[in-house]
């Protein structure tokens, strides 16, 4: 028989997926109540244009964008943006700091592009952090703000000595909205809606500096073949008009706009980081005290505030633990494939309450004791 966890131990909301993430209660009802007039409306019409601008304005407010920076969006998600970077932003050669699967995918995209030189790689094993370093031979530095696969977070800071002509491009897919950011430290900070922004996937969004905007124009005018799907200058032009180049998922934009309204009303980025920090403290403090669990990331300074990874004692059957929790409504604790040996992965995006993370740890103790 499946173990029944006492109701008073269970989290109020048992969704801890690392993406797609928890969508807060009431958002789908809001879509049905007030967003229904948007569905089936052309993205060239004013209601959808207003929605796109609502998302752009919400992001500009959340990140306190400096003068000259723009919010640009397009179809395809973050993995598509890896390829867009190779077509539209890397002039000749990039350097990649790789410390997990998504940083590796980003580097593979530039390595596979025959018009670019092989990228310079700065690598670390899963659970450790790699950071970019000055190299006069590259025109782009690229890394991941938060490695969703391992639970390692990296600082966003331009490499010491980097010139104004060397762009910093940061994959912030699972970081944006939940980790601290000084936007002036990046030229391209790109992400997707299905993590901290409590929506669906299928879109990419990017904060672009004046230097990145200029680089996009430079490469577009260079004669390089750029497939229309990866045309950054077209995306910039359409975003300024409150549109996307191709038809977007309108419901995704609506859910993201609702989340942005909530985030900005709850203290903006600082308020969201306070929420993720409280959740992370609950998880890692428990793991450090546990006699059967330990944080997968050994350096406390590198432990993510938004995606926590915990390694269990080899004697514990993680699949049995996960199955028991899932039967009790506590779900999506799967580790990323190939990462860790006996691992759980817990999302701690802004929509997740720290009290629910604490309740999760109590449920883990209760289940492990009885299994």
UniProtKB/TrEMBL annotation:
Modified residues (N6-(pyridoxal phosphate)lysine): 195
Free-text comment on the cofactor: Binds 1 pyridoxal phosphate per subunit.
Cell cycle listed as a keyword: no
Reactions catalysed according to its record: O-phospho-L-serine + 2-oxoglutarate = 3-phosphooxypyruvate + L-glutamate; 4-(phosphooxy)-L-threonine + 2-oxoglutarate = (R)-3-hydroxy-2-oxo-4-phosphooxybutanoate + L-glutamate
Summary of subunit composition and partner proteins: Homodimer.
Metabolic or biological pathway, per its Swiss-Prot or TrEMBL entry: Cofactor biosynthesis; pyridoxine 5'-phosphate biosynthesis; pyridoxine 5'-phosphate from D-erythrose 4-phosphate: step 3/5; Amino-acid biosynthesis; L-serine biosynthesis; L-serine from 3-phospho-D-glycerate: step 2/3
Protein name: Phosphoserine aminotransferase
Annotated coiled-coil segments of the chain: none
SUPFAM superfamilies: PLP-dependent transferases
Family, similarity comment: Belongs to the class-V pyridoxal-phosphate-dependent aminotransferase family. SerC subfamily.
Keyword hit for Amino-acid biosynthesis: yes
Location, primary (coarse class): cytoplasm
Cofactors named for this entry: pyridoxal 5'-phosphate
Residues the entry annotates as binding pyridoxal 5'-phosphate: 102, 148, 171, 194, 246-247
Function: Catalyzes the reversible conversion of 3-phosphohydroxypyruvate to phosphoserine and of 3-hydroxy-2-oxo-4-phosphonooxybutanoate to phosphohydroxythreonine.
UniProt GO MF annotations: O-phospho-L-serine:2-oxoglutarate aminotransferase activity
Keywords: Amino-acid biosynthesis, Aminotransferase, Cytoplasm, Pyridoxal phosphate, Pyridoxine biosynthesis, Serine biosynthesis, Transferase
Binding site for L-glutamate: 18, 44
HAMAP family, sorted: SerC_aminotrans_5 (MF_00160)
EC number: 2.6.1.52
Pfam families recorded: Aminotran_5 (PF00266)
InterPro entries (alphabetical): Aminotrans_V_dom, Pser_aminoTfrase, Pser_aminoTfrase_mycobac, PyrdxlP-dep_Trfase, PyrdxlP-dep_Trfase_major, PyrdxlP-dep_Trfase_small
Domain Aminotransferase class V stretches: 138-330
Subcellular compartments: Cytoplasm
């Amino acid at each position: 028989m499946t173990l029944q966890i006492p109701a008073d131990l269970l989290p109020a909301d048992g969704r801890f997926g690392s993406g797609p993430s928890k969508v807060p209660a009431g958002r789908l009802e809001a879509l049905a109540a007030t967003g229904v007039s948007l569905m089936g409306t052309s993205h060239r019409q004013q209601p959808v244009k207003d929605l796109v601008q609502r998302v752009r304005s919400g992001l500009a407010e959340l990140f306190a964008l400096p003068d000259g920076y723009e919010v640009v969006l397009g179809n395809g998600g973050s993995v598509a943006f890896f390829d867009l970077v190779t077509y539209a932003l890397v002039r000749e050669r990039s350097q990649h700091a790789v410390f997990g699967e998504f940083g590796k995918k980003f580097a593979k995209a530039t390595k596979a592009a025959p018009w670019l030189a092989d990228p310079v790689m700065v690598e670390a094993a899963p659970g450790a952090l790699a950071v970019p370093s000055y190299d006069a031979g590259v025109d782009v530095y690229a890394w991941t703000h938060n490695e969703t696969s391992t639970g390692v977070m990296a600082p966003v800071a331009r490499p010491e000595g980097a010139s104004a002509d060397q762009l910093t491009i940061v994959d912030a897919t699972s970081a944006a909205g939940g980790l601290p950011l000084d936007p002036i430290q990046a030229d391209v900070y790109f992400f997707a809606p299905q993590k901290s922004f409590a929506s669906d996937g299928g879109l990419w969004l990017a904060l672009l500096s004046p230097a990145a905007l200029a680089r996009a124009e430079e490469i577009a005018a260079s004669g390089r073949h750029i497939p229309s799907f990866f045309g950054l200058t077209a995306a910039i032009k359409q975003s300024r008009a409150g549109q996307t180049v191709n038809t977007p998922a309108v419901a995704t934009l609506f859910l993201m706009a609702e989340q942005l309204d909530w985030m900005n009303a709850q203290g903006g980025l600082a308020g969201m980081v306070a929420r993720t920090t409280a959740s992370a403290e609950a998880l890692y403090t428990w793991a450090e005290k546990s006699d059967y669990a330990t944080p997968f990331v050994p350096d406390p300074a590198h432990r993510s505030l938004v995606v926590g990874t915990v390694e269990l004692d080899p004697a514990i059957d993680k699949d049995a633990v996960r199955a028991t929790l899932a039967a009790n409504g506590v779900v999506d604790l799967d580790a990323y494939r190939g990462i860790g040996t006996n691992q759980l992965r817990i999302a701690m995006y802004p929509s997740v309450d720290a009290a629910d993370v604490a309740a999760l740890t109590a449920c883990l103790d209760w289940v492990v004791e009885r299994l």
